[in-house]
Design a protein that fits this description.
Elements: H1 2-17, E1 24-30, H2 37-48, H3 52-65, E2 67-74, H4 75-87, E3 91-96
Antiparallel strand pairs: 1-2, 1-3
Length: 99
Amino acid sequence: MNHGIQHDEDEDVLVEDDTHIGDVAQLIVYNDDHNTFDWVIQCFMEVCKHTQEQSEQLSLLVHFKGKATVKTGPLPVVKPMKDALVDRGLSAVIESLSE
């Protein structure tokens, strides 16, 4: 019985993620030696619309892990964010999620 409930929840998530396009992409930012924490945090808040706390946590992940996925969504939504982060001097790429 629980399987049916989980299945419905999974369908809801898939419908939400696939609203514009079937391909789901992730925006990955890599660590570098020239951008400050404050600048990266500001970029995440302005470009990705993350909260201050989310942006701070993501900047720490980027710094200590070397990279972090900062946004996941349909390619038409994620690509302009990647372009905006690159324009601001961050090292950002898009990778498709295989499902």
